[in-house]
Amino acid sequence: MTATTVPVYTKKDFQTDQEIRWCPGCGDYAILSAVQSIFPELGIPREKFVIVSGIGCSSRFPYYMNTFGFHSIHGRAPSVATGIKLTRPDLHVWVATGDGDSLSIGGNHTIHMLRRNVGIKVLLFNNRIYGLTKGQYSPTSEFGKKAKSTPFGSLDRPFDPLSLAIGAGATFVARSVDIFQQHLKETLKKAAAHQGSAFIEILQNCNIFNDGAWENLTEKDARSEHVVQLQQGQPLVFGKNHEKGIRMKGLDLEVVTLGNGVTEKDLLIHDEQNPNSAYAYLLSQMELREGFPAPIGVLRAEQAPRYEDLVASQIQDVVSKRGRGDLGALLQAGDTWVVK
Amino acid sequence: MTATTVPVYTKKDFQTDQEIRWCPGCGDYAILSAVQSIFPELGIPREKFVIVSGIGCSSRFPYYMNTFGFHSIHGRAPSVATGIKLTRPDLHVWVATGDGDSLSIGGNHTIHMLRRNVGIKVLLFNNRIYGLTKGQYSPTSEFGKKAKSTPFGSLDRPFDPLSLAIGAGATFVARSVDIFQQHLKETLKKAAAHQGSAFIEILQNCNIFNDGAWENLTEKDARSEHVVQLQQGQPLVFGKNHEKGIRMKGLDLEVVTLGNGVTEKDLLIHDEQNPNSAYAYLLSQMELREGFPAPIGVLRAEQAPRYEDLVASQIQDVVSKRGRGDLGALLQAGDTWVVK
Amino acid sequence: MVTRTTDFRERKREVIDKAVIRFCGDSGDGMQITGSQFTNTVALYGNDLATFPDFPAEIRAPAGTLPGVSGYQVHFASTDVYTPGDAVDALVAMNPAALKVNLADLKPNGIVIVNVDSFKETDLRKAQMTSNPIEDHSLDAYRLFPIELTKLTRTALQELGLDAKTMDRCKNFFALGMCYWLYNRSMDATFRWLDDKFQGKPLLAEANKRAMRAGYSYCEATEAFQVSYEIPPARLAPGTYRNISGNTALALGFVTASQKAGIPLFLGSYPITPASDILHELSAFKNFGVITFQAEDEIAAVTSAIGASYSGALAITTTSGPGMALKTEALGLAAAVELPLVVCDIQRGGPSTGLPTKTEQADLLQALFGRNSEAPIPVLAAATPGDCFWVALEASRIAIKYMLPVIILSDGYLANGAEPWRIPALQDLPEIPVHFETNPDGFLPYSRDPQTLARPWAVPGTPGLEHRIGGLEKQDLSGNVNYEPLNHERMVHLRAAKVEAVAQEIPDAVPAGDPDGDLLIVAWGSTYGPVTAALKAQRAQGRRIGHVHLRYLNPLPKNLGEVLKRYRRILVPEMNMGQLVMVLRAKYLLDAQGYNKIQGRPFKQAEIEAKIEEMLASYSEQSAGARR
Amino acid sequence: MVTRTTDFRERKREVIDKAVIRFCGDSGDGMQITGSQFTNTVALYGNDLATFPDFPAEIRAPAGTLPGVSGYQVHFASTDVYTPGDAVDALVAMNPAALKVNLADLKPNGIVIVNVDSFKETDLRKAQMTSNPIEDHSLDAYRLFPIELTKLTRTALQELGLDAKTMDRCKNFFALGMCYWLYNRSMDATFRWLDDKFQGKPLLAEANKRAMRAGYSYCEATEAFQVSYEIPPARLAPGTYRNISGNTALALGFVTASQKAGIPLFLGSYPITPASDILHELSAFKNFGVITFQAEDEIAAVTSAIGASYSGALAITTTSGPGMALKTEALGLAAAVELPLVVCDIQRGGPSTGLPTKTEQADLLQALFGRNSEAPIPVLAAATPGDCFWVALEASRIAIKYMLPVIILSDGYLANGAEPWRIPALQDLPEIPVHFETNPDGFLPYSRDPQTLARPWAVPGTPGLEHRIGGLEKQDLSGNVNYEPLNHERMVHLRAAKVEAVAQEIPDAVPAGDPDGDLLIVAWGSTYGPVTAALKAQRAQGRRIGHVHLRYLNPLPKNLGEVLKRYRRILVPEMNMGQLVMVLRAKYLLDAQGYNKIQGRPFKQAEIEAKIEEMLASYSEQSAGARR
Ligand SMILES: Cc1ncc(C[n+]2csc(CCOP(=O)(O)OP(=O)(O)O)c2C)c(N)n1
Ligand SMILES: Cc1ncc(C[n+]2csc(CCOP(=O)(O)OP(=O)(O)O)c2C)c(N)n1
Ligand code: SF4
Ligand code: SF4
Ligand SMILES: [Mg+2]
Ligand SMILES: [Mg+2]
């Protein structure tokens, strides 16, 4: 793709004339804005983008993107997207989905897409609630959640979406936050650059049914204490004054305070390309434990062939070995006889 | 449950009069035999067992167990079993399923059952093939598999069932092999003793459509080199003469030869109760790498409340707080008026 | 029937027999709450009533836009009420979009109250209006009351120290207060509700109360209205009443069924509009031992329910069309293993995701035939919100007695619509006997009760009854897997005969209206209201017509064919493209005619009446033609 | 028609016009291979034929048991063949279980070849037999040939140094050799097949060849049979022929459609009996650019196909009943977004998992109505294995031309059954024009072709055509989300009208047999064979009957109603409880009668004939009664 053939786009080129039907204050706006901001920078002709979604507030995303868009049915966006990719590997297919859409009804398609490494970018809007159906708990809601269908508190242990994706064999796993615009855009660009399936959990606020679900991580004061930003080749440092770090302790991790002989050199250096996915898994589990921060950024970025490329080249292989199929010969194949 | 009330059973008590419809030589026989052997030892009245299955060769299992049995539909055994458990937490519910049944069509129910920690024992017969439909590749088939639907080789990267289960939040994850009868029986007994969801991958040979899929691990000669048996509190040792071990290297593992200053003390000591699931994950990924053995035994056994118990006690809680529901009062609830 | 009196304030007070009021505004304006409060108040007063809430699929569509309009219509009367009303006597429109969307339904000379504060330039633009209807005389045909709702509300709440946004949120209660004045209603019930709702937030309760009182007083003081209305209580059958929506009635019906059966209720469900409220309601009834399981999808929902049923629970699953489509494979399993199960399909507009918040009746054929192979299942439909209670009970009873899955069809209109419901006395509720097999002697999992053809319910945990069931074809009696040709045929016939056996208990179809005549209307589900109203009106004009409303759609009442033959014509109005009519034509070979409306809205009484007249006219023409 | 001649070996050689042979044995005995080799050979010789493979659902049921019996029946003739034959002339039974299960179908005095070596005590016990039929005279009514198949095969292979198990695996080829002798057929084609099949394993090829030759020679030498048979070639239409099964024909049909349309073929599928072979076949055609995607379930299969169709592929999905049930929600989506898609449902016995390897026609109503709300879809059915090719082409053409999903119904019998198929010349294949929209000027995703009502196919990647589609109701023309009542009604009608528009191209129904008369048989799908055979036989007896075989089940041929009225009675035989008959009765208000067989097996010709006679008799009785 040469830069000269691609028009110069602005954010506006990716906006549609449709009224946006999200609640005022919804975190979805910020995600939409981030996507509309980075698409012009990718050097891809607009008509090559396809946004596929399931059903949910988040799944209305395609209507607001001036690209090709397919608002499919609940939970099935990964499969629709896989069909698109297998037919047209040249298209840039992004899936917009919610925690219910992709992890509840669509959980199976999500993990299968990830293991196959289909070249799809998945934006998982995680608001820990079913927004569109007005506030039932979701597979990412915290244990004990009081919601529409659980007036006495939910009893399900939530999924950790990052751990689940890693366990399923995802090659690219990242996380960002709706209101961390700069971080979100950078993360999206990294996802766009990744060859295979890119799974991006975006922590999103649903101010109507689950307001403040991520407050702990997003509030100005709490942020630096509760979030560690992963950067390739950099040590894991966090805290208001970058005074804390994470280092290995046996098989495990521990939080340490820098100083008193502890320096950045002692800390874990982030390597998103670590060939062993157990490393990314370890990071994904970190925040579940007292005192540890939640990681944001790219946990894992493994190079692996894209499914659609493998499919296409298998076809090319066979064609080059056997020649393009000849319909006449195909119909006549096997034992035949002639009746005069 | 007092031992005196439970009859003394023998293996025969768990056999049915139904002709077994598996191919001669199928690994399923060994699994059946192991289950029939250990059930009498569990001290559970026979009528309290329910075996639930989906569809597949493996899913015919219930017909051969003289317990309650439900051969449901493809992929849905975990959900049927969840309904049983929620209604009757006192029952002992085992799911018999195949790699296709539980990881392909039923993948979502499997991971949701695991995250909820429903007290179900899952016997996953992993033969890396669809047996009943005559030999298509499955989600656990190796990349490049030539099978009925992939004459030129499959292009899907397989799931690692153990990693997937761990990533989904499973509290008990184990693996055994059809022909390792003693090991299998012990593993099954451990699963039976576990409080919540127990996920047991059983490597099984389909001698008709995927003969020798596990040869590498099961052949007498290869076994000791390619398999490491996990034992609680014991170092990870393997090799024909127990001469090899596994130890930590930074965040990662390495295989070492004992001797020359390297002793068992340097090795990783297995702890299935490690609170951090990243440990079990690390083990589950081991065999994917050159030179590492495949772990068998219990990778993880975490104590956590069972879903059905939580559900039952939430009901009891509400009842004890509000009193047993009064139907008359319920119907009359809210604003009412009387017409004379 | 209008009687004029004069009130003590020297303003006219007309006694009328019915009124239709509609509250409409932005999704954020609280119209659903306003409407349901008004409903509650008129219900408590003793009017008969029907409601029609109508809201967008979005949680909050962009404020002020046409798709964001939410409405709630109440028809209340001193006489019997069957529909929410074809046209509106009084319209409360909180913004231009609401006015635009709803004005067409206002009667000539009807009352229209608008919030002038939201008719600014920008508001009009959002509603795609070029001129201000308050000023451009386009509302001259109505009695227009332009009120500064926002400003007046703020003034009323001045002292409470609230921010402007919070104050503005109370303006619907100002409007509600006005309407209470207009229809001479007490605000007490709403006061109570506010106290309850804002238990932890007394300031908000107070703000809304003040706004409502201010609205009431405004009318009292300003003489905004020269007339107010009184609608005396209706003469309903004696008893204790409450107001009930279809979804609440279903939830109560199932709890009741579980209590009468003496077995726990299990609901496996996945949220979907407009069925979710049943899940919400039942999840609150933990003290009745109700187990609610929010599953990961509809398939897990129905299969968990099958597992629960197998284990001895009254198992149900609730959904709407798209979810119903996902459950069909499992319903085949339920039919094959012959376990009781109740499936509620709260129909909505389709196909596919369609119109999630709109009503439709287009899942009948899916309910009857939407499974692989021959897997017949009884299908019942509720006629009114309150009827949902009885249908839930009856479906549960049939499922348990005959050991089979039963489908209940309701729809978005019944689900959210409300009506006064006479609360049954406990002793008037039907018994639901349950027999769990316990005797191992000669136990055969597929032996059958000679009358019902039900197989035994042999739940796990019962000593000596260990047995296996599954979705493969099974040998008669033993239940063992069996592929023999004649056994298969026998089992297919047995399963069908079992469903047919339900007909032995179905009450005969007894037409409302004339027992024979020129026209029979055959209908089902939520068309009950408009058809009943139309029948009454048309018979009052001397037409000889009857109405059979089918609660049982499979099997059909035994005498239905005979009833159909007593009329010259048969009309089948449905909110679909003609589904029941197809079944009737096939079964009885009669030229029943469909009348189909697929607009996401219920029929109007007038539409049914017009259709009746058209059919009778074409009939007379034809007969006349024949005579010529 | 039997002509007696004498062969050069001085044994009788009868020239007959047809024969039915059935190979049966244990699932492990290779009966499917034996049968298909025999089929291939008689086909190459030029006989017309039909086959009926019948095998257990288990991969290998326990050896020697009744459920483990596998059979393969071939009917071959010098005249037209329509069915695999009601009864069997020659039965090859490899063990007692096979004999027990199949004997009932053997004609009196028919040939029965049994492997005496497998009639030992234990074998008999496994087959639940108490005495040995070879000795107890229970076979006296037949021409019994007890052969030591195992021993003779071992002897023949002695020198090859194989183990006993491997030798025993060749005994089916010994039996095959015998049958080739019996019917005077050349072994050449099977020799070629063996060479090909055992390419890397020449020893195994040799072993099977020797076994077959030995069987042939055994007959030649031992004078086991006193007579052999010759069945001259059939007079088929001129052309090049091959033998084809329904699933292969579907696969070839879709590749052909893709080539004629000039767009890639995409198959999204999840394995299920009896549909899996389509996936297997198509996955081998990579050099035709075919993309086969084995999805994680049926829902992913159909939705991936929808994605592929959206992107410009000829997208198909293949399944059987239970999988079809899972696809219904997505089919609603396909109908709503109006994209081409072909769905093949290879029906099997149900309900639920049912009888996976047996045939049935009970998914018609599911295909027609098994979706939420109004989502009409054209439905086509194939009549014979070879017809599957043409139906695949036609369904693809319609899907693309009208931009909608199309369902193809086949069944287990067609899928596995085989018949000679005249290979079409390339120039005789229909064109399938494809137009991808490329012009952005005035582009509207839901504008329509005035004739077909198709919307434009605007695939992603096309500059200037960026647009959004989805499952919510959409505004006419623009495709934007729209919930307006009248727009919804309009869209429901447009989608229905588009399906109806297909009728403009459907050929008129032209009855086979008499163009009017006493009885019309209306049938669809795989009943074609027995109905055609029965019609011929009954007309030969002077009865005035016709037969309309419906390829298009939705919409129906325009003239069908008129055709139906030309006959006094209408009979609709179906392998279900009466599904098409319901549709016909509803639509045409005629008293069409169903004749239903639900045994997991096709109708026999005799069954249809008996039913015809019964209906005509009851008719004459009634008319007689009327005269009295
Ligand atoms: C088959 C089906 N089942 C259920 C629904 C109802 N439904 C629509 S969106 C949704 C959940 C949405 O949650 P999420 O994916 O988290 O999206 P959000 O609205 O929170 O962005 C559900 C249950 C549906 N549309 N289709
Ligand atoms: C809904 C549905 N789809 C597909 C099938 C066909 N089917 C039956 S078993 C099976 C796969 C079995 O594989 P696995 O679970 O690995 O079991 P195995 O036979 O190998 O033990 C499939 C695809 C079915 N019965 N139902
Ligand atoms: S309901 Fe929540 S997620 Fe949905 S649009 Fe509103 S704020 Fe956003
Ligand atoms: S096909 Fe394979 S898995 Fe199935 S019974 Fe035979 S050997 Fe076992
Ligand atoms: Mg969400
Ligand atoms: Mg398998």
Q: Please, could you describe this protein's structure?
A:
The complex is a heterotetramer, with 2 copies of chain A (340 residues) and 2 copies of chain C (628 residues). Chain A contains 11 helices and 12 strands. Chain A has helices spanning 28-38, 77-87, 99-105, 107-116, 161-167, 181-193, 215-218, 220-226, 277-286, 307-322, 327-331; strands at 49-53, 68-71, 92-98, 120-126, 172-177, 198-203, 227-229, 237-238, 244-249, 252-257, 294-301, 336-339. An 8-stranded mixed beta sheet of chain A has the order 2-1-3-4-6-5-11-7, with helices on both faces. In chain A, helix 1 packs across helix 6 (181-193) and helix 2 (77-87) packs parallel to helix 10. The mean pLDDT of chain A is 95. Chain C has 628 residues and is α/β, with parallel strands linked by helices. Chain C is 37% helix and 22% strand. Chain C has a 7-stranded mixed beta sheet, sandwiched between helices. A 6-stranded mixed beta sheet of chain C has the order 4-5-3-6-7-8, sandwiched between helices. In chain C, strand 20, helix 17 and strand 21 (545-550) form a beta-alpha-beta unit. The longest helix of chain C is centred in the last third of the chain and has 23 residues, at 605-627. The chains are: A alpha/beta (340), C alpha/beta (628). Chains in contact: A-B, A-C, A-D, B-C, B-D, C-D. Chains C and D meet through helix 12, helix 13, helix 16 and helix 19 of C and helix 12, helix 13, helix 16 and helix 19 of D. Strand 2 (68-71) of chain B pairs parallel with strand 18 (468-470) of chain C, so a sheet runs across the interface. The structure holds thiamine diphosphate (2 copies), iron/sulfur cluster (2 copies) and magnesium ion (2 copies). One iron/sulfur cluster binds at residues 22-23, 26, 28, 57, 127, 131, 206-209 of chain A.
